[in-house]
Amino acid sequence: MTYRFLTMAVYLNSRGLAYVIFESERAPVDWRVVETRGSKKSEKLLARVETLFNRLRPNILILEKMSDTRGGRSPRIRRLNEAIVQLASRHRVPSVCFTRMEVRKQFEHLGIVTKDAIALAIARQITAFELFLPRTRKPWQSEDARMGIFDAAALVLTFYHTAPVVDPNGSEIER
Description:
Elements: E1 7-13, E2 16-24, E3 27-35, H1 41-56, E4 60-64, H2 75-90, E5 95-98, H3 100-108, H4 115-125, H5 147-162, E6 165-166, E7 172-173
Parallel strand pairs: 1-4, 4-5
Antiparallel strand pairs: 1-2, 2-3, 6-7
Helix pairs in contact: 1-2, 4-5
């Protein structure tokens, strides 16, 4: 049996979440945008993440670090992010969090600093995402929900470029 190390990233936004699951740096397995409306939005999204844990059994979870209240994230999103970390812990899935600044730093050496430029770089690197790349938005437009896929992918790529990966036996996995 071949061992698959699955890296899952969840990116939260006001409309819901986006997630990506990678088998390796250039091999996404699954990705989706989930929008939720109405009451109990957080509970519905948390249930969706639990379903993903049960179905796909990721080895590690990557999220945006939101402990800083000045980060521009609403209290509801910060609470949901923390609830997902706790859910991962209950499922024995370790979690790693990166700030927006840490993610941007990973693309800085390429001269890329904007969300749109990062998304374009990811789409060029991972051709499966090319069809999901939204147009660059105008200042008066709201962000396309598909941008969450690229935000989640940027979290995974930051993880792959900064953290050593260890298999269940304690051996470092080459990427």
